[in-house]
Amino acid sequence: MAILDSKIPEGPLEEKWDKHKNNINLVNPANKRNIDIIVVGTGLAGGSAAATLAELGYNVKTFCYQDSPRRAHSIAAQGGINASKNYQGDGDSDYRLFYDTVKGGDYRSREANVYRLAQVSGSIIDQCVAQGVPFAREYGGLLDNRSFGGVLVSRTFYAKGQTGQQLLLGAYSAMNRQINRGKIQSFNRHEMMDLVLVDGKARGIIARNMLTGEIGRHSAHAVVLASGGYGNVFFLSTNAMGSNVMAAWRAHRRGAFFANPCYTQIHPTCIPVTGEHQSKLTLMSESLRNDGRIWVPKKKEDAKAIREGKKRPTDLSEEERDYYLERRYPAFGNLVPRDVASRAAKERCDAGYGVNKTGEAVYLDFASAIERYGKEKAFTMGHKNPSKEEITKLGKDTVASKYGNLFDMYQKIVDQNPYETPMMIYPAVHYTMGGLWVDYNLQTTIPGCYAAGEANFSDHGANRLGASALMQGLADGYFVLPYTIGDYLSKDIGTGKIPTDSSEFDAVENDVKARIEKLMNAGGKNSVDSYHKKLGRIMWDKCGMARNEQGLKEALKEIAALREDFWKNVKVPGTSTGKNSELEKAGRVADFLELGELFAKDALNRNESAGGHFREEYQTEEGEALRDDENFRYVAAWEYTGNIGEAKLHKEELEFHNIELKTRSYK
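Request: output the structure for the sequence above.
Response:
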């Protein structure tokens, strides 16, 4: 049985990473040419890891279900990437970034991992600038920064509202260079179906060619899973429709512990749900909260009139508006962390102040920013008494230069001009802080199986601060994994190629084929999507922004019953050979139906509120999250035992020697 050993180095916090790099084993360049590594997922974590490992000399195989690595969901990240370079001179430092991240995660992160993340953050920016990533720049040519929620400094580097896309293109270009050298074999339109273990070590995967249906065997000395998060367990989320948990879940069933599945982030700044017809939700970047002010009407009758179309938001004066985040959290205002902002929006809407037809929306208003920027621009142009029209025009131009593509996207989706009328937003499932448990080296409880980026349980604890997902993904891929994986592979320099004609590969391939045939032969009448939507409704209603004991117990029973019905009554049309998108979805939903139950089990076990995990029974008089550090200051790592309902809990106790544990406050 696997055990939890975090392998955190000894010594002072700021020296751990350097000391660790100096002490671990290395593989010399000649031997790297004889070692194979599989990387599943080609987003920021997987793409950067594959490019760096190949550049070091390893032979790399990459797998993604998209038609190109640059179509990974990392492309959707909009707002920015954090780094503690202190370009603004506002007091930032590695320690401040470390502190903000641990506090933002509600003290449920490993100190050592987070400090390492802060240490390498500056190198990420240097790497990406060298690749040609077009970060925004100030008048003098220096890289610009803006603020994000949960911090009091400006440390977020950005490229308009396209930061994820630009960073991914940087990693993709680095990958392409290695593909051209023959050091990376790129398997696009391939989906990992299972993990192969030989003598207890990860030695390869079984993958399905999504165009031909062919099942293939691929061996390696180590496997890196960088396949993203599991937010689509809720059906409606900001994730791409294809985002899934299959790679991580297959590894979990083979022995990798799954950590903190209940830690899921609800993003406060999404375009609201409009009806049952939707298959996904659209994120409006958190960067908008730098300049946008969030409000609802002070009076319920005004909110009702707006919902009924009898009033417009611009009809309400400043005195008739409740800027509730500024009122409740004066120190941070609209830039409180995502979990805090999301719960506050839900509370206002539940109280009857919602502003769209469903009553589940609040306003994000840029009128003040347009006026402020307009006056500033006019003043710098020498216009000391500008007209209102000039101020408005100049202000809109400035806002457009910072957020233009986001405003255009909103207008195309909602058919409203956000320069003229406030945006409507509401919280939605976005990011998952839970994932495969990994040690300090990013290795799971399966030797030779590593997890990077959102696929691991990450450095974010119970809540991720904005602009830190890109930071963690690139830190793992560019600057952590290439060091730590060498320590493991140094023992494989004489192993030689891993053969695929072994009993272990035979057995796993047979398991994969049997599962596919079981899905194809279920013979039911219900579509895959119908089960996914039902699961999503259970998850949102009972495992969403607020959870309670009764709802979680109901969710456990309902998910188990839904899963049983799925295997009996799902209908997968077509054949298992050739392209079959319904078969692909069926395999992913089958895994979500298992993950959903473990999610609810983890949430029921954690009798506290922390970050994105909010149990209604555990809150302060002011409605804030109430942690229980005495009983739940640990990472919950679940071991698969053959039955989801009987998953075994392992605890990694969290120790804090450099940060004082205290109530998280943004007031």
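The radius of gyration is 25 Å.
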